[in-house]
């Protein structure tokens, strides 16, 4: 299923980028441009990331600094 129609980005692609370390919509946008044109997909990307698409988010919730470091670098 497509998440971003402007750039033809699928849910599977967003999940793959999340597995590779992109844990915020901004990081997903940097990886594949999703969310950078009309913006209508940003909420869907946020929902995917919030549902476990980003394995590092669990570490951050446990007090690990991984997510904070990624967001600071962005």
From TrEMBL:
GO MF term set: 2 iron, 2 sulfur cluster binding; metal ion binding
InterPro entries: BFD-associated_ferredoxin, BFD-like_2Fe2S-bd_dom, BFD-like_2Fe2S-bd_dom_sf
Organism superkingdom: Bacteria
Pfam families hit by this protein: Fer2_BFD (PF04324)
Keyword tags: 2Fe-2S, Electron transport, Iron, Iron-sulfur, Metal-binding, Transport
Transmembrane segments: none
Family according to the record: Belongs to the Bfd family.
Entries under PANTHER family matching the protein: BACTERIOFERRITIN-ASSOCIATED FERREDOXIN
Protein name as annotated: Bacterioferritin-associated ferredoxin
Native organism taxonomy: Bacteria, Bacillati, Actinomycetota, Actinomycetes, Kitasatosporales
């Amino acid at each position: 299923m497509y998440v971003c129609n402007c750039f033809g980005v699928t849910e599977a692609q967003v999940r793959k980028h999340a597995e590779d370390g992109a844990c915020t919509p901004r990081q997903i946008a940097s990886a594949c441009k999703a969310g950078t044109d009309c913006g209508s997909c940003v909420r869907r990307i946020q929902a995917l990331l919030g549902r476990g698409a980003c394995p590092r988010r669990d570490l951050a919730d446990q007090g690990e600094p991984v997510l904070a470091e990624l967001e600071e670098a962005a």
